[in-house]
Amino acid sequence: MALDHAIRDRIGTDSDPELQTPQDLVDVEDDYLVYKPQEPEATQQEADEVAPEVFDYLISAKVLLPKGDVLLPACIISRKRDGEGNLIGTHHSNPIMDTRIYDVQFPDGHVESYAANVITENIYARRFLLLAEVMDH
């Protein structure tokens, strides 16, 4: 109660004619109170117009992939394309049925193609191995 009275004494009440709006409490120019787009003629792209690689969560991922009998670090650099430039494979929410193919670059610079399900399997296997090591600690 005492705090409320002190505030009313300090800044006034709602019925005070000098303080009718919150803008009156702050010295701000009217330009900042109204939303004005910086580029009114700009439009947002439709999802169909954006390249599929933009939303691909695997591109630029760092993974450990099998190369012979060992796992080597690699970076996924792009989706594989056919001779006409079309992307190979299609995404599926079930990783086993995902048919996409990716170009993967190894530290020595050579590039190989790997299926998305192999990449996903190795990502999950590494996470589970780390989790198992933490639990066994």
What can you tell me about this protein's structure?
The protein is of the alpha+beta class and 137 residues long. It has a domain at 49-136: SH3 type barrels (Roll). Helices cover 26% and strands 19% of the residues. Strands 1-2-3-4 form a 4-stranded antiparallel sheet, covered by helices on one side. A hairpin with a 2-residue loop joins strand 1 (62-67) and strand 2. The longest helix has 21 residues, at 116-136.
Summarize the structure.
With 137 residues, the protein is an alpha+beta fold.
Q: How are the SSEs ordered, and which strands pair?
A:
Blueprint: H1 2-11, H2 22-25, E1 62-67, E2 70-79, E3 101-105, E4 111-115, H3 116-136
Name the features.
four-stranded antiparallel beta sheet, 4 strands, 26% helix, alpha+beta, 137 residues, SH3 type barrels
Count helical runs: 3
What is the CATH topology of the domain at 49-136? Answer: SH3 type barrels
Biggest sheet layout:
4 strands, antiparallel
Shape estimate = flat
Radius of gyration: 29 Å
Mean of all residue-level pLDDT scores: 78
CATH class of the domain at 49-136: Mainly Beta
Ranges where pLDDT stays below 50 over 5 or more residues in a row are none
Assign a percent range to the helix content. Answer: 25-40%
Reading the helices and strands in chain order gives: HHEEEEH
Which range does the strand content fall in? 15-25%
